[in-house]
């Protein structure tokens, strides 16, 4: 009987103020998956999905964070965006962070 391999987890903070750093987390994930000997086709698909989500966090939100978990069965990417919602009500500004 083989022992199950522990999940491998990565965390990345995505800066929403810096377009030049957009995509850095997806490049790091790609390199880390190569080190784990993941199949090239899977790495390509994961990298594209990660990049798309990361770019969305930069363009449409104020950045966010990415959590990537690699198990024997799958690779899970959870992206959490930071939003700032501003409402103007009769000269007042309410900000929800």
Structure description:
- This protein is α+β, with helices and mostly antiparallel strands and 97 residues long.
- The protein has two helices and five strands; from the N terminus they run βααββββ.
- The protein has helices spanning 24-35, 40-60, and strands at 8-15, 63-70, 75-81, 85-89, 92-96.
- The chain has a three-stranded antiparallel sheet, covered by helices on one side. Strands 4-5 form a two-stranded antiparallel sheet.
- Helix 1 (24-35) runs antiparallel to helix 2 (40-60).
- The longest helix is centred in the middle third of the chain and has 21 residues, at 40-60.
- It is elongated and about 35 Å long.
Architecture blueprint of SSEs:
Blueprint: E1 8-15, H1 24-35, H2 40-60, E2 63-70, E3 75-81, E4 85-89, E5 92-96
Antiparallel strand pairs: 1-2, 2-3, 4-5
Helix pairs in contact: 1-2
In short:
The protein contains 2 helices and 5 strands. It has 97 residues and is α+β, with helices and mostly antiparallel strands.
Give keywords.
alpha+beta; two-stranded antiparallel sheet; elongated; 97 residues; 3-stranded antiparallel β-sheet; disordered C terminus
């Amino acid at each position: 009987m083989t022992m199950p391999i522990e999940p491998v987890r990565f965390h990345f903070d995505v800066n929403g103020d810096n377009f030049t750093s957009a995509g850095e987390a997806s490049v790091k994930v790609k390199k880390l998956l190569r080190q784990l000997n993941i199949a090239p086709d899977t790495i390509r698909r994961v990298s594209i999905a990660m990049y798309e989500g990361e770019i969305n966090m930069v363009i449409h939100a104020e950045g966010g964070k990415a959590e990537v978990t690699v198990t024997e069965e799958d690779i899970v990417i959870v992206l959490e965006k930071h939003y700032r919602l501003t409402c103007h009500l009769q000269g007042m500004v309410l900000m929800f962070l």
